[in-house]
């Protein structure tokens, strides 16, 4: 589909249900495949309509040089839902940066969001921007060294080496690393005004390990689930448990 001016790879699994879930993947090496291989089939099998798509610059979606602020990603999601004729509020399930996008969309379009499940994610506050700038700067530097790919293959696999190559190409051929941390950023007052239910799924050793309850303590309808001993790769390493959490959550917060 052409979404917000970009050729976009979209995958629909209509189940004829009364609820719709939109899966939002992370940044860099990620694509809709991470949800296709973990949550999308069982969620659709439960009678819930599923929408997945590759974010701009990722997977099979077009990769412009510029246009990677959160406003751009929010506009993409909004145009996609309008073109698909989805007129009921949706459940947003986001992994890493996908969860950040879900928060920004809920602030911009509160009436369009039934609930949020964010996996190792946080809203685009100044704290988030500082982390993202640091992580992306390190990543760019790391991926410019050829020996880094040898290390990735030795410690993980040849598949991870290929993913890192693709991530390096995405980051170095675009302004993604520069523009994403710019936001627009949310204030904590805006985060506290998110009225839909939010489930935050975190690893105890993930990116929010310094204060696991900081986010849910601000949200008026926030709940927290922590996987002890788990890092940032919660979706991949705990996908069966995450699947059950997501299915129970949607059942609880269905229209």
UniProtKB/TrEMBL annotation:
GO MF entries: 3-oxoadipate enol-lactonase activity
Enzyme nomenclature, EC number: 3.1.1.24
Entry keyword set: Hydrolase
Domain AB hydrolase-1 per the UniProt entry, residue ranges: 20-137
GO cellular component labels: membrane
Top-rank taxon, per record: Bacteria
UniProt name for this protein: Beta-ketoadipate enol-lactone hydrolase (EC)
InterPro entries noted in UniProt: AB_hydrolase_1, AB_hydrolase_fold, AB_hydrolase_sf
